[in-house]
Amino acid sequence: MRFERDAFQLCELADLWGIDGADIRYLVASNRMRLSVRIVAQSALLSEEELTAEGEPFWMPVELCPKVGDGLK
């Protein structure tokens, strides 16, 4: 079964078209191909500032959570 898709990774297009990534980058840079980017999810490391015994500030990781769009989920 084959599904219709509206988005592909650049490496998939390179394989499908039989060209390398540099050619795709050239097409995009020369405005011959329009590129869209979709970010599905990215992890964000939340940290809090703490102080050492000497009073020096440092960041302590608190939570690793998925980030979607402009806000934290």
**Per DSSP, what share of the residues sits in E-state strands of 2 or more residues?**
25-35%
Number of continuous helical runs: 2
Shape: elongated
**Largest sheet, order of strands side by side?**
1-2-3
What's the story with the biggest beta sheet?
Answer: 3 strands, antiparallel
N-to-C span: 34 Å
SSE ordering:
HHEEE
Structural write-up:
By secondary structure, this protein is of the alpha+beta class. The protein has two domains: 1-38, no CATH class; 42-72. The protein has two helices and three strands. It has helices at residues 10-17, 21-29; strands at 42-51, 57-68, 71-72. It has a three-stranded antiparallel sheet, with no helix packed on it. Strand 1 (42-51) and strand 2 form a beta hairpin. The longest helix is centred in the middle third of the chain and has 9 residues, at 21-29. The radius of gyration is 21 Å and the shape is elongated. The chain starts with 9 loop residues before the first helix and ends with a strand. The model has no long low-confidence stretch (mean pLDDT 80).
Short description:
This protein has helices at residues 10-17, 21-29, and strands at 42-51, 57-68, 71-72.
